[in-house]
Amino acid sequence: MRKRSILKKRILEKSPGDWRRIEKVRFMPGCAAGLFAEAESWRRLDASILAPMAAAGNAPIRVWSAACGGGADACGLAILLQENIARANSRASFQIFATDVSPALERARRAQFSEADMAGVSPERRRKWFDAVNGGWRLKHELRSHCVFAQQDLLADWGFRQMDLAVCRDLATLTRENQSRALHRLHEALRPGGVLFLGRPARGVGASRAAGFETLDAEAGLFRKSAETAPFRSLPAGPSDGTNQIARLRLSLEDLQATQEELFALNRELHDVNTRLSAVNASRAAKIRQLEAQRAMLAGGALIALFLDQDLRLQWFTPAAMELFPISERDLNRRLTDFVPRIHDPDLVPAVREALSTGRTHEAEARTVDGRWFARRIRSYDPGEAGAGVALTFVEITERKQAEDALRENAERLRLALAVGELATWDWNLRTGAVVWSDGHFKMQGYALGEIAPSYEAWIARVHPEDRAGAEAALQAARDARTVYNHDFRAVHPDGSIHWLSAQGSYFYDDDGPWRMIGVMRDVTAQKCGQDALLRLNAELEQRVREEVGIREQTMTRLAQAEKLAALGELAGGVAHDFNNILQGVAASADVMTRSAENARLVRRATDLQIKATQRGAAVVRRLLAFARRADLHAQRIDVAALLADSRDLLGAASGAGVALALDVADGLPPVSADRSQLETVLVNLANNAFDAMPGGGGLTLRARRETRQGEDGLVAGEYVRLDVADSGSGMDAATLARACEPFFTTKPFGKGTGFGLSMARGFAEQSGGALTLASAPGAGTTVTLWLPVAPAEEDARPPRRPPASAPVVAARVLLVDDDATIAEFLTDYLRGRGLDVIMSTTGAGALAKIRSDETFDLLVSDLSMPEVNGLDLARAAHDRSPDFPVIILTGYAGDADPLKTELRAGGAIQLLRKPIAGEDLLAAIVPMVRNERATESSS
Length: 940
Hints:
CATH superfamily of the largest domain: Vaccinia Virus protein VP39
Shape: elongated
Helix content: 40-55%
CATH architecture of the largest domain: 3-Layer(aba) Sandwich
Radius of gyration: 70 Å
Largest sheet: 7 strands, mixed
CATH class of the largest domain: Alpha Beta
Mean pLDDT: 79
Low-confidence stretches: 1-5, 17-32, 229-233, 795-801
Structural class: alpha/beta
Number of helices: 25
CATH topology of the largest domain: Rossmann fold
Number of domains: 7
């Protein structure tokens, strides 16, 4: 230090700035540009100097990095030397001495660099020679061990000796005098032929001009130390001045100084090593404490662990290990092969030996004799060292194995169920698009197993083009409505075959919407084909049934027609008998009137007979129309109790011997609204049926009650009088009861009945606003019930009064039309006799011409059914002239009234009268219509 102080004093006396620059050099962080700055200089150093040194491999390579700063140059030299030695496959070794007085020397010892310092290091070298630590990079230990870092003042302290390479790339910052001093130090440190590396700044140093150096590469700053030799044969003559002795002493002193400096550097290095060893010892002590804590934790836990050395001798074990191995503390240092474990693991010892030899970790599963499962793991530690060994650990996995077995069983069960049910499954992640298909899904889609990666696109590609839109729409509908997806579609296989598939699936939702869909699919081709075949069979069957039904209906129609013809024959016989009697009376009375015209009494009697005969004929016609449900009923208020009382004597006389007739009429029975004559006829027919059902005698009860109906039996809700005609006869079975009201159906022998009675009774009841029901059973008699509506209180059921023969009539001009001349003449004569002006026509065409002429008429009376132009045509023509023109239509057939009813609904003054009609009845209808028409004209 004294020498350093003297040097500092002299420098300050001569040039204070030099000392500041020297201090800057001493304390600057080495090469500020980082590792391998000035890449070209380093490349030339590597190629021309380091590579030959490494290839020679004769002696250790000694390198001094002076003013090393942060150690970038020293670490770079270590990397290049190591790479060259490896590349040359040389046995050479090297040692790098790095010195400086800068505080950065501590960072240099750590060999840690920032990202900026590493700018010149290639990625390959980073991976090979550095470790990433704390956001920076650190040189690996194998290279750090070649570097020795120590403090040294380049200008004040003695340097090293016999160095192969000296490096000082910051020399250009000194003055020329101090540069020469530094070069002298570096020259002394190099062996003869040693190399000095200054880098590109050497161009300003002048090393080539310094004594003892020759230039190798000026651009790279490479110089070689030249040999210092001089011829010396004998001492010069003359007195001794001590020069030789001084030279010898100087050489000895220099050797001693070099040795002292090396010892000093070695001491510093040993001090550094001691510091590092102390740190290592502290770290190892901490690790020992940590290991002891871990060992205590292992001993107190349930982990089964054994530690063996290289000879498989037991070094330590956890107490839980005694569960699988028959060991105790006395068994330490015994071999693993000396124990018989309670676990079946034949590969245990071979696996341990392999782990020791290869360093690889072995894992396996083993089972104990009592059925427990353990996961066994063998791992080596500290391989290749004296303390190398293996650690065996066992972890119980019995529950996991049981769960795996259960899972495998469930999976197998599911697989078998899917196979038996011929089902396929899919699992679709809607977020990622990933799809998982079962094996059967590939087959149903026409793919070989594993032929294609499952996806939505792979599925839709197989769907028949005509079914794709429907399949996608069904998916979207189920997704939007959060319902189950259920859809059938066709899939087209590569061979062109078409298969029907039925798919069912469900979406799964979270807060963001649907994210997953799972479903099943099955091939329903056979079912679809079966359905199609069944539909064809059903269609064929229905066609055959229709044909059979048609044939049966035709047969039944012909049979019914035959039955009707037979019944009509019987009916015609009865009607012919009645009309023959009527005609007989008319003919006889006409003969009397012809032969006895002068006898007024006989003429009057003959006239009365004709009128009665006409009325009898009209009654026969009404009965026929009632049977056909075409008759016009004249509703009137009827006292049912009085009617039944009046009918008792008549029915009692007709009942015959052995039949008891009884009346059961409730008190206060209201009147009904019906046609009295038709009701009497119905009661007589029902009673006659009952008498026929009791040939051996029995009882007949006529019962009347008031009842309220709420829509039962086809009745409108309201008040009704219930008339029961109940007998105690043989009754009817269900089949007979079902057909009892059919026209022409009868169970009586031929000639005993026509089958009209019940049908005519039902027609009368329904036309009256009521209904007819039957109740019967074999041996229990029969009850026929007539439901007739209660008459309204304000209804006036009195028959219309005819005007008396002497009553005055209005003066009116009447157009009377009938294609039957007899009827036309009779009615014309009668009306003219009552003071009316009647214009008669026997053709519809002639009457139409009169209506369209300029003639005026007050009223039209026309027959309905006429050839070419009928009564309805005439009525329309009259209404064309005057919408309110009064018209009376006469008809003898109820069916002709249907068009007229339509005309009545369309409007117009039209009245319908039935034939045969008496003159006074026609007059009674004409008078009010004429008066009303004239009253209308007056008001307008």
